[in-house]
Automatic annotation (TrEMBL), chain A:
One of its GO terms (molecular function) is tRNA (adenine(58)-N1)-methyltransferase activity. Catalytic subunit of tRNA (adenine-N(1)-)-methyltransferase, which catalyzes the formation of N(1)-methyladenine at position 58 (m1A58) in initiator methionyl-tRNA. Belongs to the class I-like SAM-binding methyltransferase superfamily. TRM61 family. This is tRNA (adenine(58)-N(1))-methyltransferase catalytic subunit TRM61. The keyword tRNA processing applies.
TrEMBL record, chain B:
This is tRNA (adenine(58)-N(1))-methyltransferase non-catalytic subunit TRM6. PANTHER family: TRANSLATION INITIATION FACTOR EIF3-RELATED, TRNA (ADENINE(58)-N(1))-METHYLTRANSFERASE NON-CATALYTIC SUBUNIT TRM6. Belongs to the TRM6/GCD10 family. One of its GO terms (cellular component) is nucleus. It is found in: Nucleus. The keyword Isomerase does not apply. Keywords: Nucleus, tRNA processing. Signal peptide: none annotated. It comes from the Eukaryota. The lineage of its organism: Eukaryota, Fungi, Fungi incertae sedis, Zoopagomycota, Kickxellomycotina. Its main location: nucleus.
Amino acid sequence: MFHEYKKVIEEGDLVVAYATPESMSVIKVSSGEILNNRYGNFWHSKMIGLKFGSKIQSQTGTGFIHLLSPTPALWTQVVPHRTQILYLPDISFISLYLDLKPGKVVIESGTGSGSFSHSIARTVAPTGHLFTFEYHELRAQTAKQEFAQHNLTDVVTIEHRDVISNGFGRNNIADAVFLDLPAPWDAVAAAKQALRADTIGRICCFSPCIEQVQRTALALNEHGFTDIRMFECLAKNHEVRSVPLPNIDEAISGNKINFKAIANELKSKKRKMDIDTDQDILVSKPLDQVRGHTSYLTFAILAPTDN
Amino acid sequence: MDAMKVDPVVVRAGDHIVIRMPSTNSKIVCVKPNTTIGLGKFGSFQANALIGQPFGHTFEILKGGEIRPLEQKGFDDAELTSANNQNINDDPQSQKLTFAEIEELKAKGLAGDVTAQEIIGSLTENNQTFAQKTEYSKSKYIQRKQRKFMKSFVPLETTVYNLNDFFFEVNPGKIRGIRVDTLSQVMSLANVYSQARVLVVDDGQGLLVSALLSRIQDGLVFGVHEGDVPNYDILRYANLPLDMRDRLLTLPWTKLHHQMHPFTEVLPDNPSENDRNGFERRQRGHAKLAKSIDTLNGGEFDALVISTNYSPVSVINKLEPYLGGSRMLVVYDPCKEPLLEAYTMLRQSPAFINVQLTESWLREYQVLPNRTHPLMSTSGSGGFILSAIHLASS
């Protein structure tokens, strides 16, 4: 399940059917059902009793997939995008900055597609709680169903609610508040009420535009939040490969080297060409296209308000 | 539902805390009763005055080491004016106070005889170009002086974030150069949760171990370490509750393949106090080692997290058998090169899928009305993470 691991797959378990990093889906194991994808047909009944992390052949034996435990990180990669979602670097940084850990009570608005919600639930469970609010009725319903399917209802309470107009309806309860709203500044007063009065409170506002940051920072300042700090956070994937790096003497002696062919051979790990292997080196570089911006993360703390 | 209370809400005697100073530098101090806590040019105060106080407020240091909460000033409301620096030249003469006079003011400030505001007031009054400065520039000047002369501080908890931030600033080598964003990604990728059993190699003096312990409640952190005893120095700043210490088991690398034999030593007849103590110590040591070895050999760990000075490939190969199926391997290194060989090895290994090598990137901004921009100076690198999903043995 999303906030704990199991060893062996049983009827009713959630399983990530993993083919490649780009091709995976979450299924609920139910004997009698068949998973069809481009790698073949896979009978659920044959998954039962296998360990998580096992490989399973398709019915025809031509393809295979791996059966993985669902985790918030994998869910972020497969979640149906009903909104712009949060990715692992932002999720991670915000969680650490807000000091999320088991036992903490967190407020999130909006729920959006629930990518971050799953991660928060995993981190604060089993003694903490996430209250998440979504003003879009259908999105709230869908997220509610997902949390139920993912056995997160003990840890997550979702409410269809416009927090800008109606606040969070809960006072003096949260260790941390996360606002991913078009106008987070309008929810800052409500956030202040929701934060615990007896201890330091932390807030993060997630906004893609710098103009939003400006207004949010002013609102935070006005409501007595301090230590207002803003970050951008990304992770760049690197690709690693072996490349030939022959000495120029090869060229001087007229030995023309087909770099492209060698690179291809190195890639396929089937080396046939007669080039000194000592001249291969491992190199890496960031992928040609990487995510350049997600959102600005504006953080602040609220000193205890009850003294 | 009542809010859970997982952390102390006030400064407790004997705890370590982070002190944020006006310069925005931080310091970690132990709040020992009946001591004086010194903050250098920002003054010193009585530890007793801070015990029982909540975190997050700004405290002003008064004469005699007393402290009192200071109303935090928010953003200044500097406005765009027509002033500019057309007629301001760099001129040390623009400050009419002499070096000696300023030093005297500082000394009086430290003794608590004049306030920081008064010092800054004299400095601006006697600065001949101050009036010509733009409002933004005036504000910046005053802020710069406040960072120097304010005698105030903010007590903060030694959260994992604050500890990482502090050591990254003052001694990055100690924590193998891991930056907060990178550590946070290690925690997410490793899927650490309350009941997780995590196998860890932490050659970064226990920051990783502290971070892992903070995210488990009923789980286990198992550290394999160099030498006879682990050097997890950073743990002592984390104020872990005593029962959390039981959630950490360790084993020296030298005992990785150790064959445990039953404890056969017997206490001699009429033992001396020394005999008895030695006997009991060896018995406890034996039991502890046996427990660690049993736990490791039980395998099926929920994550393998590595930050090591040794070859990552060699460490992965040694510990991979203890990692469960569909569980995460996460390796941190400040440099990319040690991870390249490991990446290639994992890609070729039938035991791992979804191998990823990432570099983390973080940028902080100054946010002020009409003056928002990235910080002029920032960390150049936060390190690299190699991660992969481990498969079940068939």
